[in-house]
Amino acid sequence: MDDRTFRSAMGKFATGVTVITTEVNDEPYGMTANAFMSVSVNPKLVLISVDEMAHMNNYVRDAGKFAVSILNEDQQDMSAYFAGQVEEYRSVAFDRFNGMPTIPGSLVNLTCNVHDSVIAGDHTLYIGEVTDISISEGGPLTFFSGKYKQINGSVEVKEV
């Protein structure tokens, strides 16, 4: 199979959308990621996947910690910005949560210390031990088949 077929098949798995953030030398950095999952309840572990060529890979490695902001249905602009789909520079007013930069208004913000990392193919998998969690109400921003989707209260999916 070719790379496009593989990517198309993986795109059929609906995911939430997150922004991964960290801070190095008091400078915040972020990237959009849908490669995020819970790993363990005891201890509380999550996993993020970062492209080996992404600058974020070095930032997470250097900082030894990261935050995950699970975006709400109204935060497509944040996702697009941190995915590099918006070309102009924006000054992002990060919230501070447990000493880490996070995206304001997100459904969930959690902070993690890097517990372990594994290079797998062209990505590094970072397993983070969760140090704090903040939860808000709202609907999730989701991604399916290369497009943003929203789920309303009756679980109807609409394209955005």
TrEMBL record:
Keyword Oxidoreductase found: yes
Gene3D superfamilies to which the protein is assigned, alphabetical: Electron Transport, Fmn-binding Protein, Chain A (2.30.110.10)
Keywords: Oxidoreductase
Domain Flavin reductase like: 10-150
Signal peptide start and end residues: none
InterPro entries reported for this sequence: Flavin_Rdtase-like_dom, NADH-dep_flavin_reductase, Split_barrel_FMN-bd
PANTHER family: FLAVIN REDUCTASE (PTHR30466), FMN REDUCTASE (NADH) RUTF (PTHR30466:SF1)
Annotated protein name in UniProt: Flavin reductase family protein
